Amino acid sequence: MAPPLSSWPWASLGQYKYVLFGPLVWKVVQEWREQGGLPLGSWWLHLLVLFAVRGLTYQFWFTYGNMLFFTRRRRVVADGVDFRQIDAEWDWDNFLLLQTLIGATVVNSPLLPGLRQLCLWDPRGWAVALLLHVGFSEPVFYLAHRALHRAPLFARYHAAHHASGVTQPLTAGFGTPLESLLLTLAMGAPLAGAFLVGHGSLALVYGHAFVFDYLRAMGYSNVEIVSPRVFDAFPPLRYILYTPSYLSLHHRERRGNFCLFMPALDAAFGTLDGRAWALQRAAYDGAAGGGALGTPEFVFLAHVVDIMSSMHVPFALRSLSSAPFANHFILLPFWPVAFGFMLLMWCCSKTFVVSFYYLRGHLHQTWSVPRYGFQYFLPAAKKGINHQIELAILRADRMGVKVLSLAALNKNEALNGGGTLFVNKHPDLRVRVVHGNTLTAAVILNEVPSNVREVFLTGATSKLGRAIALYLCRKKIRVLMFTMSSERFLKIQREAPPEFQQYLVQVTKYQAAQNCKTWIVGKWLSPREQRWAPAGTHFHQFVVPPIIGFRRDCTYGKLAAMRLPKDVRGLSSCEYTMERGVVHACHAGGVVHFLEGWDHHEVGAIDVDRIDVVWKAALKHGLAPV
């Protein structure tokens, strides 16, 4: 049997837990109808607004802390958050829900008569709240926190909170009901005291809640924002205000720094870990000993797909970025904001760091070119996009990056010849530029069953289509190459060994494949075009975006992808529509290039002879087909 107050009573409700706010919403609706307008003097309304504002405070701190292009040099801990921690902290806002319900209970009771008359501002209440915070909340939290670190309370109530390897603002809310009740006492006592003596006010409630949540979120942010020079100029501040470094030492080592916000109590009771000051300085300055992200050894250079998917970034909503991208109705209200950011990025942005993970001790990062998919098809934007990609490659070269892999349209043949433009322009590059399409071709080809003797191929004269056709014909598989250009078809056919050229057949109509059950799709297919496939057909795909599965009597493969090795660390977001731990094959191709230590650029046309070499290398290093 679980210990009391160790699990949430509404856990079984899942995302429907917010129905507990139903009575509060009903109260607001009633008062709205009675008053004929928004009841600005209603505590029920203010409780709901407070819940939203407080949640946004933690969300904004989460967003800032994970904007690596701002904060990567001021991190306290260099490790990344993983999916296990994200899942454990999924209901991090339970404490806000609890405190809102407790607030509603207090408002509906005669405990605090001062609540009956809503005062907007009373400076005396702020003084009372400050005295009670210093004299009551800080000592009570300190003593309770120390008690939670002793057996058997730690294992029953506090161990799960410390299981989160890297603190995040959302980690601040993750805990058991007992921990949340103790936090509620520490936060609520100053407010209750101010109202009991008749000096409470609405401004005090909002102000105290904001400052309390702001400091909590800051402490858990894993990013230093206060310069150590401030503490040097005013040394007593070290005992008045804690820092993310101070809390991080406690969270990771669990043997000191128990205070709420004021390290003075740790100093008084002998539990202060003095290393916090040196760690804070190192983290803020990005020096050795801090958690600043170093130079990556592998970079995946991506771009934004569209406005909706731009909100799938790891520093926006963690609940969305930790799952494969899908269009959610919750994103629609934010579309205008995302559109504004698109215009801003188009005008004055440069390539930025999006995410990172570690593989066998090596730092891998994803960078993004500040351009959206549709812009790659604007003739006027071609020069600017290539300039952005070139700057990213040169930056990686200066930093000492070993391999940079081009994603999706960044390696478009019409844009830069699959990366050839940059390699030819800068022949002395130390960073290896890779398009990763060799592994993409390998993934697609290894999905084709060994007993297949005929395939239908669209996008047949593209970079991938050419490689797939040449590879399959060597296996004596008949390839129906759908293309209107006899010139391009003949050029590819002549690349095949003479004895295998007969297996490459040009077709110009979809009807030619009406008896072929293996379709390899590199060009968008409409429902009308798909109907020519016989029942039981499987559609392999390398077209972006993937075709829509209209046929119920057929099966549809996903885009070429591979699962990263099991020893990957700090991976916390999904790559576009990929599952957790799965990346596009071109990303995986760059990883293999790095792990193998290959010294050549992989740009331009795919070397068909290397398809099997790259595939075997991927499997050797623990990458797995999906």
From TrEMBL:
Cellular localization per UniProt: Endoplasmic reticulum membrane
Cellular component terms (Gene Ontology): endoplasmic reticulum membrane
Membrane topology: Multi-pass membrane protein
Top-level EC class as recorded in UniProt: lyase
Any single biological process term in GO: lipid biosynthetic process
An MF annotation (GO) of this entry: oxidoreductase activity
Keywords: Endoplasmic reticulum, Lyase, Membrane, NADP, Transmembrane, Transmembrane helix
Start and end residues of each Very-long-chain aldehyde decarbonylase CER1-like C-terminal domain: 455-625
Catalytic activity entry: a long-chain fatty aldehyde + 2 NADPH + O2 + H(+) = a long-chain alkane + formate + 2 NADP(+) + H2O
InterPro entries: CER1-like_C, Fatty_acid_hydroxylase, NAD(P)-bd_dom_sf, Sterol_Desaturase_Related
Source domain of life: Eukaryota
Transmembrane spans: 43-64, 125-144, 181-206, 329-346
PANTHER family: STEROL DESATURASE
UniProt family annotation: Belongs to the sterol desaturase family.
Protein name: aldehyde oxygenase (deformylating)
Organism: Panicum hallii
